[in-house]
Amino acid sequence: MRPSDGEHRAGLLHGIAAYGMWGLVPLFWPLLEPSGAMEILAQRMVWSLAIVALALLVLRRWGWIRELVSSPRKLGLITVAAVTISVNWGLYIWSVNNGRVVEAALGYFINPLVTVAIGVLVLKERLRPAQWAAVGTGVAAVVVLTVGYGQPPWISLTLAFSFATYGLAKKKVNIGGLESLAAETAVLFLPAMGFLVWLAADGGLSFGAEGLGHAALLAATGLVTAVPLVCFGAAAIRVPLSTLGLLQYLAPVLQFLLGILYFKESMPAERWAGFALVWLALICLTWDALRTARRTRAQALRLAAAAKSRALAAPAEPAPAPQAAPEPDRACAAPRGPAEPAG
Fold this sequence. Notes:
This is Protein RarD. Its main location: membrane. The protein is mostly helical. The chain has 14 helices and no strands. Helix 1 runs parallel beside helix 12 and helix 4 (72-97) crosses helix 8.
């Protein structure tokens, strides 16, 4: 197995782990009540930095800090990633704890379509006809859901765009998952700690006021945050954005099933229609991606086979004949007599 194949397989495994954990995380957030979404978000930031810093201390991985600090571009990308993921975290927690798991799941269903759109707008990629059809079907789904909800599905759209932007920033910054998370949580640490201090002074902090078990659960938000994000960061630098788009289906499928079967959220006919259009778009996008990958792989194999055939068919060139040594100049090679005395 070539090293690149090993990196790709590791990226796939990290991506599956990340999206699987994100798919099941709606079971965790209701355990943190009566904490509000903003306090849970701030606790996530603080405890995530503590856990990541401990991991870096154990692994002795600090060399990346100097490179990051000396690169304004990477610092800017890390800041964009930190801001967008904090928006995504906060809104997702609020959605789950307010009985809108299905709408949150829709955001992650839409996310691959948004990723394709960002590829066109930001990376100047050219879409194939099937991709255009998928994006158009996704737009139609949003229109149907807007009619059904009576307003645009703003939770779904905000989650989709924030996470797609986060993935793009992670791809561009190109540092390890653990290091990237450490940098992001460092950017968020001071605002999060300031908010918690203000909340405590105002008497609204639930940490410590609801018992030791509740405080332990809030502290565990660091692990719940760090582990899947480290896996996602490791996947983002090893596999293409298109592959990440395919892996993202795992999380919303699990979330959707939890919303329907566990949280018992309602699904009127217009929502089913909107979801059906989204799923149709994703099927089209997936089919096109698999077909393109298969054609690319077949073309690479054909080119390799043709190059090998040409190399075997080419006749061996004869070795050059050895050249005869030139005869010595007899005048120069004649023995000289004894040197004459000087003048």
